Amino acid sequence: MPLSTSSNFPRPDDAFRAIVEAHRGLTDEQAADFDAALVLILANHIGDIDVLRQALVLAKRRMIDSQQQQQQQQ
Asked: Which domain of life is it from (predicted)?
């Protein structure tokens, strides 16, 4: 099964808000722990190592692209 990169939410903004709200009041360390736990829970739910690997590559690529854009703006 290929990684789906289009939104599967009928109201994507609601999903984004739920994630933001879940972080409210957390320290940076708590937020990092929360994110790690959420990733592991969702990875288990997916249950497909190939899809997980695709998601990991995409996430890393987006992070690197974002860092490069920030450096170019400086």
From this structure: Bacteria
Amino acid at 57: V
Alpha helices in the chain (DSSP H): 12-23, 28-46, 49-73
Q: Judge contact between 34 and 26, C-beta under 8 A.
A: yes
User: How many degrees, rounded to 5, is the angle at CA 38 between CA 37 and CA 41?
Assistant: 85
pTM given for the model: 0.80
Task: Using alpha carbons only, give the angle 52, 57, 60 rounded to the nearest 5 degrees.
Answer: 120
**Alpha-carbon torsion angle 70, 71, 72, 74, nearest 10:** 90
The amino acid occupying position 3 is: L
pLDDT of 20 higher than 90 = yes
